[in-house]
Amino acid sequence: QVQLVESGGGLVQTRGSLRLSCVGSGNTFSNYAVSWFRQAPGKEREFVAGNSMNGANTDYADSVKGRFTISRDNAKNTVYLQMKSLKPEETAVYYCAASLAPLRPTAVFTDQTYYNYWGQGTQVTVTS
Questions:
Q1: Contacts of 57 (CB under 8 A, 6+ apart)
Q2: Which helix (H) or strand (E) holds 46?
Q3: Most buried of the four, 14, 21, 71, 92, by CB within 10 Å?
Q4: What is the pLDDT of residues 72-99, one digit of tens each?
Q5: First to last CA, the chain
Q6: How far apart are CA 38 and CA 85, in angstroms?
Q7: How far is CA 34 from CA 10, 62, 63, 91, 101, in A?
C-alpha cells in the first residue's frame, strides 16, 4: 500500500502558476504509475496528467497541454504538477493517484478506475 498526501494548492490569479506536490509513503513509489486528477464543483472528476511507472511516458488532458507538467522524484517519493497560465475554470480540488503497475511499466492510465490509491486532495482556486 501507499499513502498519498498532496500539498501546494491555494489561491492564485488568472494566468498565475502553482506547483502541487504529492508525497507517497508506505511502499516503493517507483512501483507505481501516478497521475493527477481534478474535480470542480458540480462536475465529474477528470484526468489532468499522468506518468508511467518507469517515468518514461507522460500524458495530459488536451486542455492543459503546454501549460502543465508532471514530474516525479522517486528518491523523494514525490510527484509534482507544475501548472502555468491558470484559468478560473480550473478551480478544483486536485487529487494525486497511484496505481501499482509492475506488469505495465510504460503505461499511463487516464482512467481513474485503474487507481487504487488516492490522496485527500488540495484545493486550487483561480481568481479572475
A1: 51, 106, 107, 108
A2: strand 46-51
A3: 92
A4: 999 999 999 999 999 999 999 999 999 9
A5: 40
A6: 17
A7: 22, 18, 19, 21, 10
